[in-house]
């Protein structure tokens, strides 16, 4: 079995990914490739799944870095574990090596992402593993970061260490889909989430929307928010729904709440500015409503003026801030414009078994300008499951129709 899916072999100059080489990188990290035969033993799989469990402890807190977990095994026993807690702090491998101490010599380390091979905020893990004398490295997926991109695997192999790549690769990729998207497309992964009735409405004709879905679906949304870096809404949602956009779990990560508003014609007493327990950012255009800007600043809300406020400009700005994932929880008009501009890659639709009717009751996605069914955007990799009394449908826009 060829077990060397090294990105660097796919293209020599990956510092800037282009449309031409992106698909090579995607297949090297385990995306868009046909199902592969299982790599590694059942024990290897169990250890890799433990790495992912550890990695998840830092959900929402590591951007722009990935979620990574590591486990060191000696004579069939776990002797060290670790995960990457946040950017700037040591990598998962370092924590696992510290926990294992001398027992790392001759041991096998499992790590959900290829060990790094560069000096970033922290030194290269490849060298740390070589110095610690590990005998074998089992990798979940290749790191798409052009500074690593197979170099970590190559360095370990050059030092005589056995390296196995691709154990539970799909699960590893799933956990870091936002990090991979950020690296490849230089934008955060955009996730459009909405809740609608069986007849496709997000509110009644009079605008009442509390609540479309069950309590179980709403707590799933809180978990989803905690795993994202930011949640975006438009001014209309603030005016009509007055949301909190919090995670409502004490220990959970609190994503940045972002409001897009060109003119800042927003309510002075919105819940968003009155709940200081989560950070809030208002994106607007140059010179908009200075008095309101002052009021927001006094309430601890950050205001940033962009030259023109569009979904893509907002995503470009959030990319520069180091974000990997952005949850669009906006109304239909902004959702349509975000989709049209390629700011949404993934859709999460909660569907409640209710019918409210109303020909002008709002729908989750406004006008996309389509006139025929052949123009419909068909989602790929679609999955669905029941959450409480609702159904959650999840899927991705096809890349060519919707990539930056
Ligand atoms: N293998 C691995 N384990 C971790 O725990 C990590 N955080 C990474 N991250 C990779 O290294 C880059 C960040 O490096 P610095 O934290 O700035 O030193 C990140 O972009 C990943 O490529 N890898
Ligand atoms: Zn590292």
UniProtKB/TrEMBL annotation:
Alphabetical keyword list: Hydrolase, Metal-binding, Multifunctional enzyme, NADP, Oxidoreductase, Riboflavin biosynthesis, Zinc
Keyword Zinc: yes
Pfam families for this protein: dCMP_cyt_deam_1, RibD_C
Cofactor or coenzyme needed: Zn(2+)
Top-rank taxon: Bacteria
InterPro entries named among the record's database cross-references: APOBEC/CMP_deaminase_Zn-bd, CMP_dCMP_dom, Cytidine_deaminase-like, DHFR-like_dom_sf, Eubact_RibD, RibD_C, RibDG_C, Riboflavin_Biosynth_HTPR
Cofactor note: Binds 1 zinc ion.
Limits of the CMP/dCMP-type deaminase domain: 42-164
Molecular function via GO: 5-amino-6-(5-phosphoribosylamino)uracil reductase activity; diaminohydroxyphosphoribosylaminopyrimidine deaminase activity
Associated pathway: Cofactor biosynthesis; riboflavin biosynthesis; 5-amino-6-(D-ribitylamino)uracil from GTP: step 3/4; Cofactor biosynthesis; riboflavin biosynthesis; 5-amino-6-(D-ribitylamino)uracil from GTP: step 2/4
EC number per UniProt: 3.5.4.26, 1.1.1.193
Catalytic activity of the protein: 2,5-diamino-6-hydroxy-4-(5-phosphoribosylamino)-pyrimidine + H2O + H(+) = 5-amino-6-(5-phospho-D-ribosylamino)uracil + NH4(+); 5-amino-6-(5-phospho-D-ribitylamino)uracil + NADP(+) = 5-amino-6-(5-phospho-D-ribosylamino)uracil + NADPH + H(+)
Summary of the function given for this chain in its UniProt record: Converts 2,5-diamino-6-(ribosylamino)-4(3h)-pyrimidinone 5'-phosphate into 5-amino-6-(ribosylamino)-2,4(1h,3h)-pyrimidinedione 5'-phosphate.
Family as reported in the entry's similarity comment: In the C-terminal section; belongs to the HTP reductase family.
Protein name (record): Riboflavin biosynthesis protein RibD
Source organism per UniProt: Nostoc favosum CHAB5714
Phylogenetic lineage: Bacteria, Bacillati, Cyanobacteriota, Cyanophyceae, Nostocales
This protein's encoding gene: ribD
């Amino acid at each position: 079995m060829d077990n060397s899916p090294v990105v660097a072999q796919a293209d020599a100059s990956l510092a800037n990914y282009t449309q031409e080489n992106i698909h090579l990188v995607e297949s090297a990290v385990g995306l868009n490739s046909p199902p592969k035969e299982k790599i590694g033993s059942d024990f290897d799989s169990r250890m890799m799944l433990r790495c992912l469990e550890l990695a998840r402890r830092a959900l929402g807190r590591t951007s722009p870095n990935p979620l990574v977990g590591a486990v060191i095994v000696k004579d069939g026993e776990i002797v060290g574990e670790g995960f990457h807690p946040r950017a700037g702090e040591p990598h998962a491998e370092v924590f696992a090596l510290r926990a294992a101490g001398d027992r790392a010599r001759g041991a096998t380390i499992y790590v959900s992402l290829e060990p790094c091979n560069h000096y970033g905020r922290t030194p290269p893990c490849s060298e740390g593993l070589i110095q610690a004398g590990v005998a074998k490295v089992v990798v979940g997926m290749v790191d798409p970061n052009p500074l690593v991109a197979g170099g970590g695997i190559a360095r370990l192999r050059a030092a005589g260490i056995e390296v196995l790549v691709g154990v539970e690769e799909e699960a590893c990729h799933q956990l870091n889909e936002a990090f991979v998207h950020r690296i490849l497309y230089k934008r955060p992964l955009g996730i459009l989430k909405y809740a609608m009735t069986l007849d496709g409405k997000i509110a009644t004709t009079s605008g009442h929307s509390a609540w479309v879905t069950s309590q179980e679906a709403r707590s799933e949304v809180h978990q989803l928010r905690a795993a994202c870096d930011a949640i975006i809404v438009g001014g209309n949602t603030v005016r009509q729904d007055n949301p909190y956009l919090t995670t409502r779990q004490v220990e959970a990560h609190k994503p940045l709440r972002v409001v897009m508003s060109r003119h800042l014609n927003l309510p002075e007493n919105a819940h968003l500015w009155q709940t200081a327990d989560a950070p809030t950012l208002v994106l607007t255009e140059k010179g908009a409503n200075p008095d309101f800007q002052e009021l927001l600043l006094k309430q601890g809300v950050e205001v940033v003026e962009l030259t023109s406020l569009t979904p893509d400009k907002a995503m470009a700005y959030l990319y520069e801030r180091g974000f990997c994932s952005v949850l669009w929880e906006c109304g239909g008009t902004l959702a349509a414009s975000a989709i049209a501009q390629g700011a949404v890659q993934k859709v999460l639709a909660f569907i409640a078994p209710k019918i409210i009717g109303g020909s002008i009751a709002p729908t989750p996605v406004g006008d996309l300008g389509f006139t025929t069914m052949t123009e419909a955007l068909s989602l790929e990799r679609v999955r669905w499951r029941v959450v409480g009394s609702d159904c959650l449908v999840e899927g991705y826009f096809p890349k060519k129709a919707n990539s930056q």
